[in-house]
Amino acid sequence: MAILEDDQLVELLVDRPELERTNGNIYYGRVEAVLPGMQAAFVDIGLEKSGFLHASDLIEPDDAEFDDDNGSSSSRRSSRKTPAIQDLLSRGQEIVVQVTKEPIGTKGCRVTAQVSLPGRNLVYLPSASRVGISRKIESREKRHRLRKMVRALLPEDAGGVICRTLAEDLTEDQIQRELKSLLALWKKIQKTVAEAEAPALVHREASLTLGIIRDLFSDKVESLHVDSTRLRDEIRQYLKQMDPELTKRLHLHRDRSISLFDKNGIEAEIEHLFNTRVDLPTGGYIVIEQTEALVSIDVNTGSYTGRKGKDPEKTVLKTNLEAAREIGRQLRLRDIGGIIVIDFIDMEQQANREKLFHEVRAHVARDRARTRVFRVSELGLVQMTRQRVRPSLVDSMTVKCSGCGGSGRVFQPEVVARHLDRSLRRVARNEEERQVMVRLHPEVALYLFEDEPDFIRHLSKRTKVEIEIRDDPTIGIDEFRLVSQPAGRDVTEKYAAA
Is the distance from CB of 431 to CB of 256 less than 8 angstroms? Predict the structure, then answer.
């Protein structure tokens, strides 16, 4: 799924069957170990690695101000002292927890006992006791009206609620309907827990598509395009229940001569997604390097030197401002999280540093992930943190290259298979190509035969193209060659897709 703003790709979301998404899932787990020194516990939830539960995620925060647009009940932590973990949990204890962060690298997922059930307009918090309002609803009158309305509708001792940004102009009937639905869902989860044996999954978060539709698709979105009739019908059915007016903005891509991503220039963007260097419009560029500890971003003027006789400080400021805009986009696009350090070009004037700081903040404000930006340091560095919920696209779509000792990255065999799938569909659109030989690295060929044995047969049947697979150790592990038969003509460049 791709999100475009001003005709530019700003987010790319990938969901594949072999990548099981766990964020938002609710589990009935068993405490495996309690670590007083870390104020944390490890909870067996039935996955390969146990979930990490910090003591602060066992108690209810007391701040009722929220950033709501990721569907979670994220708030500032309570200022009161967190009780000792050993006083709250014991080994072997069974507990309901929810995943708040996907497993990343060698770490298991992060979990919380503060369960939240996101709806389109509200987030229900079964173990909380307050009504919170999204920070993005700035009108004092609307905040007061919403809080009063929800408190009146919420049954006594039923938990807490966050009013999301979309709830700004809701009527009492609309709030009541959604609240009733969320309460019924929690009752169903409780029943499942009562009948389950730990560890067990008791509630699965909505699919990537419906989760994004629920959280983002509003009257502020110009249009939504899909290339699947089944998906279009599924979304339409969901919208009829949630917001019928939005069905007018749902469109089915029917043009078989060009793919939906090709038509919108997205494939070209994906092709350059993992480049360390990103060029800026006026000739400058940025370099993005990911390490274990942090992500460093370097800003350079490159070929941009400004006009002859122009103040060098203005040239540097222009490059820095351009870089700030592009960095905001790249962080979202690559889904980079954790600590980020940006080395902007040094500027002498404090006023220009302030201007740059506000420019950076303005461009990360659109980000759905929580981001904190610190002021420009004396060295011209901007430090920031960005919420890390799942592995970045680099981590989830690439693996360490055995050929270069881990200094570079290559696509995984399943990603190469998807590239091949899209390329062969392009071949099929040319009625002159009826027979193609595909040369692949042996490891990728083995993956196709063992993990996706029906891939070629189904694809050949759909495209009406006769496909022959040949393993070739001289081909790179994330490359392939397409050879038109019987002529033996290499047509890779003509049809290869990102």
Answer: no
Strand, coil or helix: what is 213?
Answer: helix
- CA 347 from chain center: how many Å? 34
DSSP symbol at 113: S
Ranges of residues in the chain whose predicted pLDDT is under 50: 63-65, 69-79
Rounded Cα–Cα distance for residues 240 and 263 (Å) = 28
H or E element at residue 180: helix 172-195
Of 330, 312, 303, give the one whose Cα is nearest residue 386: 330
pLDDT > 70: what percent of the chain? 92
Residue pair 448/485 in contact by the 8 Å Cβ criterion = no
Nearest to 174 by CA among 222, 119, 131: 119
pTM of the model: 0.72
Q: Are strands 480-484 and 466-471 parallel, antiparallel or unpaired?
A: unpaired
Q: Find the helix or strand (DSSP H, E) in which 314 lies.
A: helix 312-334
Sequence letter at residue 122: L
Distance CA(173)–CA(1), nearest Å, equals 33
Which neighbouring-strand residues pair with 480? 440
Report the C-alpha gap between 486 and 162 in whole angstroms: 64
Tens digits of residue pLDDT in 273-331: 888 899 998 889 999 998 878 999 999 987 766 555 567 888 899 999 999 999 999 99
Q: Which three-class secondary structure state does DSSP give residue 217?
A: coil
Cα–Cα dist 119/134, whole Å: 14
Question: Residues 6 or more apart from 39 whose CB is under 8 A from it?
Answer: 54, 55, 56, 82, 84, 85
Instruction: Supply 276's token pair.
Output: 């360390």
